Each structure stands twice: as C-alpha cells, then as structure tokens.
Amino acid sequence: MNVRAGAAVIRGTGGRWLGVALTVSAVLASGCTASVGPDELAGLYRNDRTGGELLLGSDGKFSATHVSTDRSSDPADFHGRWEFLDNQASNDFVYLTVEDDGLGKTAGIQLYPIGRGAVEFRPDPDGKPMPKLTKAATP
User: Fold this and answer.
1) CA nearest to 50, candidates 33, 71, 32, 36
2) Rounded to whole angstroms, what are the CA distances from 115 to 4, 36, 47, 61, 83?
3) Contact, 113 vs 36, CB < 8 A?
4) What is the dihedral sign for C-alpha 57, 69, 97, 113?
5) Is the pLDDT confidence value at 18 over 60?
6) How far is CA 125 from the centre of its chain?
7) What single string gives the DSSP state of each residue in the chain?
8) How many Å apart are CA 19 and CA 99, to the nearest integer?
9) 0.85 exceeded by pTM
10) Mean per-residue pLDDT of the chain
11) Who's near 22: CB < 8 A, 6+ residues apart?
C-alpha cells in the first residue's frame, strides 16, 4: 500500500467516525430537549407529598383537586379546559382556562411539562417552581 492510499483510508475512516459521532450527539441532544406532545399529556398527575391531583382529560377538559398554583394561596379545587401550546420561542406549556371562578379572579394559568410524565406550575419564572405533579400509572 502506498502512503497516499493509506492516508486516504485513514482520512475516510476518520471522516466516517466524525460523522457517526456528530449524528449520535445530535440524537442524544434532541432526546434531552424533545417536547411532549398533547396526546402524551392526557392523564392523572399527583403529588404524593401535598395530596394534589390534576386530571388532564383527552377531551380537553381538566379538573384539579387540592392543587396549589402559587406560593401565596392555599390548595384549591378547580376545573375547566386545557390546551397545549407549542411555543416556538420558549418553553411549551399547557394553558388551563379555569371555569366558574374556581381560582377567584384568575381566569387561566400556565402549566409546564418538565419531561416525560411530570408537570409543574411556575408562578414566578425567576423563582423556585411549585412541587411537581407526576403522572400516575394507569391501572
């Protein structure tokens, strides 16, 4: 084998390895930041420590039992409709439209998916998030 041919093989192999490494990195990075789709969100979420439950129905309705949405209010029961908003500029979120004055003057609130199977309220974007609600296993 001449030196030029050997260098071409090494360069070609190195290029392939670099391509493989970049592809694997892209797949791993996209897996870390993959957003949750609306079909995956429907279900019952609980916080065992606080006793709060949130049911996101597949029909677009929700009900919350003993849930705190900020640090200054007591846990409340409320219900309404939910909509998944795929926000291209920042984090995707679920908008909960609260019906029947369930939270007083608050007509709606944002709920954030934080990975597969968990959601949280963030009343202060710069502050500490509320306790997360974890999706309950389906029987």
Assistant:
1) 71
2) 50, 7, 16, 21, 17
3) yes
4) negative
5) no
6) 15
7) --HHHHHHHHHHHHHHHHHHHHHHHHHHHHHHHPPPPHHHH-EEEEETTTTEEEEE-TTSEEEEEEE-SSTTS--EEEEEEEEEE--SSS--EEEEEE-TTTBTTB-EEEEEE-STTEEEE-SSTTSPPPPPEEEPPP-
8) 53
9) no
10) 77
11) none
CB contact at 8 A, 48 and 122: no
Question: Over the stretch 20-43, which tens digit does the pLDDT of each residue have?
Answer: 443 333 333 333 334 677 778 999
Q: Which amino acid is at 110?
A: Q
- Contact 133/54 with Cβ under 8 angstroms? yes
Q: Which two tokens stand for residue 136?
A: 């309950």
Q: How far is CA 53 from CA 75, 83, 103, 119, 128, in A?
A: 11, 18, 16, 11, 20
Q: How far apart are CA 109 and CA 94, in angstroms?
A: 8
Nearest alpha-carbon partner for 39 in 110, 94, 90, 89: 94
CA separation for the pair 100, 34 (Å, rounded): 35
pLDDT of residue 138: 66
